[in-house]
Amino acid sequence: MKIQLILNGKKVEADVQPDMMLLDFVREQGMKSVKRGCDTGNCGLCTVWLNDKPVLSCSTLAVRANGKKVTTLEGVQEEAEEFSRFLAMEGADQCGFCSPGFIMAVLALKREVSHPTMEEVKEYLSGNLCRCTGYQSQYRALEKYFGLKEEA
């Protein structure tokens, strides 16, 4: 099945199998930031944007992207680098395996909600799992990035 889409600002045409997942498709296109974590849509490592909305690429068929815009971390490098500095300053970047999906979700939140509360941040990011940080350093980075203070 032939699909056409815009991947990080570039037109892409490809033949795909009807059951190919978007995760596998973008990785075949060289977007190695998109990680395979659980293959069940539970960890958030595979988060990409489909028409500027975050989706879990491990549970989204590639054919669903036909005619749409797909954005990976490679397509938002400047924004990602800005937030990554906040993560690094708080020691929240430990192994970094979850960072691409986490950063994609954070940047999507920033675009959707201009001044989120910390409760909204935590709810929005609840599907992003990190196996090594314990989240406190990530929360500190998020507070600074969004200019928030933890609510009592």
Can you walk me through this structure?
- The protein is of the alpha+beta class.
- Helix content is 34%, strand content 15%.
- The chain has helices at 22-28, 77-89, 99-112, 118-124, 136-146; strands at 2-7, 10-15, 47-50, 53-56, 69-71.
- Strands 2-1-5-3-4 form a five-stranded mixed beta sheet, with helices on one face.
- The longest helix has 14 residues, at 99-112.
- The protein is elongated and about 50 Å long.
- The N and C termini lie far apart (53 Å).
- 36% of the residues are buried.
Which features would summarize this protein structure in a list?
single chain, 152 residues, alpha+beta, 5-stranded mixed beta sheet, 5 helices, 5 strands, 34% helix, 15% strand, elongated
First-last Cα distance: 53 Å
Q: What is the H/E string?
A: EEHEEEHHHH
Extended strand count: 5
The description of the largest β-sheet is: 5 strands, mixed
Radius of gyration (CA) equals 16 Å
Strand order of the largest sheet: 2-1-5-3-4
Average of the residue pLDDT scores? 93
Low-confidence stretches: none
The helix/strand class is: alpha+beta
Q: Please bin the fraction of helical residues.
A: 25-40%
Total of helices: 5
Strand content: 15-25%
Molecular shape:
elongated
